[in-house]
Amino acid sequence: MNQPTPFNICQLGANDLNLMEGLVTMFGQAFDDLETYTGKRPSAEYTTRLLGRDTFIALAALIDGEVVGGLAAYELHKFEQERSEIYLYDLAVSAEHRRRGIATALIEKLREIAAQRGAWVIFVQADTDEDDKPAQALYSRLGEREEVLHFDIPVGEK
To answer: For residue range 45-78, what is the model confidence (pLDDT) as tens digits?
Structure first.
């Protein structure tokens, strides 16, 4: 039986434009939504600024230099106490590399980063439909489930 190819997790910085490009493409493929993720790519200047911010966290899982998984998260500084929360915005693993512990490893790395920053919690949303059952199972294994409602409030014209 073949052993799976090992993967590495790296945190992207301002000079990692090519890795970010690969991460965004992988998200589009994994979520079957290439138009949203690749249709209007931001400029290199925008991406460099984003990756350079201390409130944005991008992690990539790499096999032989190829992005096979990753996550994007934001650190939200609280006003009521000197602490922060980490919002795990997107997490995906390419279809051919799933069920190998990559998503769990990405979250564990995010936990390390959150602890270093003094964050008190990581929170994430999951859809309630059948397509998101694997994500629900992963998050249930790693954290506590809360029943919440999510509302999108449009900005600009209605």
So the answer is: 999 999 999 999 999 999 999 999 999 999 999 9
Three-state DSSP class for residue 102: helix
The residue type of 37 is Y
- Domain residues of the chain, as ranges? 8-142
CA-to-CA distance for 122 and 88, rounded, in angstroms?
7
Q: Which pair of tokens denotes residue 85?
A: 């929360």
Do 126 and 135 touch, CB atoms closer than 8 A? yes
pLDDT tens string 124-158: 876 666 555 665 565 556 566 666 656 665 677 66
Distance between CA 90 and CA 116 in Å, rounded? 21
Quote the CA–CA distance of 89 and 80 in Å, as a whole number.
23
H/E stretch holding 140? helix 133-142
- What's 8-142's CATH class? alpha beta
